[in-house]
Amino acid sequence: MSDKYSNGLNKKGKEFLWISINSAQRLWSRINGLLSFLRIEKEKNVFKTLSLKEVIEEVLRSFEENLLKVGAEVNVKGNFPEVVGNFFLLKELFSNLLSNSIRFRNTNIACKLFISYSEEARFHMIHVRDNGIGIDAVEKNYFIDLFKKYHLSEELSGPGTGLFFCKRIAELHGGSIEIETDRTSGFGVIVRFPKEFKLEQL
């Protein structure tokens, strides 16, 4: 559209057109983000016992083409348990994390993703880590808020909803997310799910 209407504009007019289009695209991204949030809230009423192993396998299958395209190596380790949850929401959670790892990979080295399981006394812990560009550790909690973005460059910018959705989905499952990151070791997220979670807690 910008090419169609910019031919008759001077330099200042073209700049204004570009700013207007860019602002409209950001607004549309935010609207889509809010619609996704409403869908998440609706899905919270459909919970059952399911396998986290099957969720992660399904996510990896859906990302197979993208992972091959960037030459990513994926390492999955651990005996992933069953939890009470919503398959669609959990797939959204881990899809967001994998999408971020691919989007914010370090293009100077081979992309590596690590998905593993550990446990605490009361929680299952799923670790998702990459060797990407990361963020400063002191800023890690800032990026969990709605519409907060990892990076300011245009080519890496997005609507800023991904980690907020991950946090909300984890909370709906009685859990939480914790960010582990710095500028030298990539980006990591720990997703916690309670070992005992009853549907009446929703």
From TrEMBL:
<keyword id="KW-0597">Phosphoprotein</keyword>
<dbReference type="InterPro" id="IPR003594">
    <property type="entry name" value="HATPase_dom"/>
</dbReference>
<dbReference type="InterPro" id="IPR036890">
    <property type="entry name" value="HATPase_C_sf"/>
</dbReference>
<feature type="domain" description="Histidine kinase">
    <location>
        <begin position="1"/>
        <end position="197"/>
    </location>
</feature>
<dbReference type="InterPro" id="IPR052162">
    <property type="entry name" value="Sensor_kinase/Photoreceptor"/>
</dbReference>
<dbReference type="InterPro" id="IPR004358">
    <property type="entry name" value="Sig_transdc_His_kin-like_C"/>
</dbReference>
<keyword id="KW-0418">Kinase</keyword>
<dbReference type="GO" id="GO:0004673">
    <property type="term" value="F:protein histidine kinase activity"/>
</dbReference>
<protein>
    <recommendedName>
        <fullName>histidine kinase</fullName>
        <ecNumber>2.7.13.3</ecNumber>
    </recommendedName>
</protein>
<dbReference type="InterPro" id="IPR005467">
    <property type="entry name" value="His_kinase_dom"/>
</dbReference>
<dbReference type="Pfam" id="PF02518">
    <property type="entry name" value="HATPase_c"/>
</dbReference>
<keyword id="KW-0808">Transferase</keyword>
